[in-house]
Amino acid sequence: MDRREGSAMRDTDRPQISEQVRQYVQQLHAVVDQLVDPLHQQHAERLQCALGCMRCCVDELTVFEVEADRIRDAIQGQELVPAPVGRCVMLDEAGACRVYAVRPYVCRSQGLPLRWGESTADGPVEHRDICPLNESGSELSSLPADQCWTLGPIESRLAHAQQMAQEARGEAGDAPLRRVRLRDLLGSEAV
Q1: Helix crossing, 65-75 with 153-168: angle to 10°?
Q2: Counting beta carbons within 10 angstroms of the beta carbon of residue 95, is it exposed (0 to 12), middle (13 to 18) or buried (19 or more)?
Q3: Side-by-side strand order, sheet with 149-150
Q4: Residues with Cβ < 8 Å from 63, sequence gap 6 or more?
Q5: pLDDT tens per residue, range 39-50
Q6: Which of 80, 100, 77 is nearest to 89 (CA)?
Q7: What angle do CA 127, 32, 133 make, to 5 degrees?
Q8: Helix (H/G/I), strand (E/B), else coil: 156
Q9: Where along the chain do its domains lie?
């Protein structure tokens, strides 16, 4: 079979996502873009992210079904040759994202200084990280909190959208939240 066939899941395999949830996810992506834009500007000198870098664009990335739904819509009817195993399936030969406009949340904040909290027996602990390519510049620990992307709030809102979609299909509220491998969006031929 030609590797370009089956460029998207069959509609019968596609989970039902309500228009309300679709709009919620689209608006959430727009909010993320608005919030990360100033961070990209603040860290422009340190960010090495550019067309063809692909260091963060790895295989086996999974997203909630509600984000996968946007990508399915964008690639519907296209004959996409999957990127080689190891790279994100959505990259073209030059390393550009073929679904950039509808890329998932995780791709919208890649490269930025990240911060997240954890509760421990000794109390709350804050962690910080950044892509090794973007380490030059101020120490992450010295950055004000508002100069880092905070992990957690957006993930919680995406999880809520996924739970709404699953409950609308009659799944129990405590059912595991379903995720989709990006490579699976191009069908079994994308292996």
Answers
A1: 80
A2: middle
A3: 123-129, 114-120, 149-150
A4: 71, 104, 105, 106, 179, 180, 182
A5: 999 999 999 888
A6: 80
A7: 50
A8: helix
A9: 11-190
